[in-house]
């Protein structure tokens, strides 16, 4: 009787997963990037402008940490092109254009009145 294996490695697929070390590093970075804006906002350390800037910068860094340490965006198997990275960059470009265009329109909509 032939045995059927449901293991993905038996079928020649190579799914890369992060090591325990990379997960711990990602977790610690996520905690730090969560605590920094929390402390800045709760203690009123800066005025509104710098506080918003700090929150936005840590949010972007948190996004990058999540992508690389937990979602394995940089991982690829074999010689496959990095379609997921290209799709991510394209999506971010679309979001940037839509958000910046919306802010531009809202900021300059009432100038001539």
From TrEMBL:
InterPro entries linked:
Cyt_c_oxidase_su4_prok, Cyt_o_ubiqinol_oxidase_su4, Cytochrome_c_oxidase_bac_sub4
**Entry membrane topology:** Multi-pass membrane protein
Localization, UniProt: Cell membrane
**What is the protein's major site of localization?**
membrane
Top-rank taxon of the source lineage equals Bacteria
Membrane-spanning intervals of the chain: 23-46, 52-73, 85-107
Q: Per UniProt, which keywords does this protein have? A: Cell membrane, Electron transport, Membrane, Oxidoreductase, Transmembrane, Transmembrane helix, Transport
Q: Which family does it belong to?
A: Belongs to the cytochrome c oxidase bacterial subunit 4 family.
The protein's name in its UniProt record: Cytochrome o ubiquinol oxidase subunit IV
């Amino acid at each position: 009787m032939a045995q059927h294996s449901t293991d993905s490695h038996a079928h020649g697929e190579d799914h890369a997963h992060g090591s325990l070390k990379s997960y711990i590093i990602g977790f610690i970075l996520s905690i730090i990037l969560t605590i920094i804006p929390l402390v800045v906002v709760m203690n009123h350390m800066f005025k509104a402008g710098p506080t918003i800037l700090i929150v936005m910068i840590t949010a972007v860094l948190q996004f990058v940490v999540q992508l690389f340490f937990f979602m394995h965006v940089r991982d690829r198997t074999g010689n496959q092109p990095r379609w997921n990275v290209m799709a991510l960059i394209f999506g971010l470009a679309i979001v940037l254009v839509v958000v910046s265009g919306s802010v531009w329109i809202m900021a300059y909509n009432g100038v001539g009145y």
